[in-house]
Amino acid sequence: MGTIISIDFTSKVNKKNDGIINAKVVSDSRRYLKRDALLPAQEEVHIELANEHTSEPIKSLEDIERFSNYLINNGRYRDNMLFIVGINFGLRVSDLLQLRFTQLINDDLSFKTTFPILEKKTKNTRKVRRNRYLTINDAVMDAITLYLEHTQCRLDDYMFRSESNRGSNLNKPMSRMSVDRILKEVANTLNLDVKIATHTMRKTFAYHQMLMSNNDPRKLLLLQKMFGHSSAAQTLDYIGITGEEIEEAYMKLNLGSRDHYLVDSVIQETTYYPAS
Predict the structure, then answer these.
(1) According to CATH, what is the number of the domain 53-202?
(2) Is the torsion defined by CA of 144, 141, 82, 195 positive or negative?
């Protein structure tokens, strides 16, 4: 079994009114040398680095609410449904776009409680096929209901139909590129300080699952299994937890200075007593 890594989420957030959580920067100030302390470079320096993650979760509940409200207030009910379903189901966008209303809604127009899905990656890469069961919560039902109040659909329609000139009259899902464009456009409009891409919705789901569970190790292992990761550490890195904690660990250590540990250091001094 993989090693369980304990992460303290509360050390990186400020809790404000209404339970809204916003990320806190460890240090905003940078120290500058004197003007003549270092001579200018005489050659261009090339340093090899690995590719960085191209997407991040939306960690602020306030930003999630702003994102949804912007879409609703502009009458973009399909896009709001896409965003809400995406962050509550945690599916890859390739699986998300294949959803049809009949998977979530019964013939009598009542919502199902759960439904199975065979994810494409599981289908194509794993020897043993296993369905993943998704539970439909109130947020998802509200977003779907709002969309259907403004759009005439059939039970067998794709939930996220293309609205382009070529796909408007066809039962055809929107493209991954369209999803990426929509997410980036809203994020830019709202000035969200987040690297946005299609994986943002899936990572947002995982991040808030961990936050909601108060860093329950069982939830971490559940997400690891759900996402098909090889280790719990990979799951934490995927949703952007380890990077925050590593930065904080460096900033608060300060060995060799007068203040060896800053207040609320992530490393706590422990006293060991010899066995009697």
Answers:
(1) 1.10.443.10
(2) positive
Q: In the chain, what are the domain boundaries?
A: 53-202, 213-264
Report how far apart, in Å, the C-alpha atoms of 181 and of each of 158, 166, 186, 257, 264 are: 19, 18, 9, 47, 40
CA distance 62 to 193: 13
Percent helix, strand, coil in the chain (nearest 5)? Answer: 45, 5, 50
What three-state secondary structure class fits 13? strand
Q: What is the dihedral of CA 115, 121, 122, 125, to 10 degrees?
A: 170
pLDDT at 251 over 90: no
* Contact between residue 9 and residue 216 where contact means Cβ atoms under 8 Å apart: no
Q: Which two tokens stand for residue 62?
A: 């306030």
Q: Are strands 114-117 and 132-135 parallel, antiparallel or unpaired?
A: antiparallel
* Distance, CA of 240 to CA of 27 (rounded, Å): 18
- pLDDT tens digits, one per residue of 90-144: 999 999 999 999 999 999 999 999 999 998 765 545 566 788 899 999 999 999 9
Alpha helices (runs of H) in the chain, residue ranges in sequence order = 61-73, 77-89, 93-96, 101-104, 120-125, 138-150, 176-189, 199-212, 217-227, 232-238, 241-253
Residue 33 in this model has a pLDDT that exceeds 70: yes
Residues with catalytic function: 92, 121, 199, 202, 229, 238
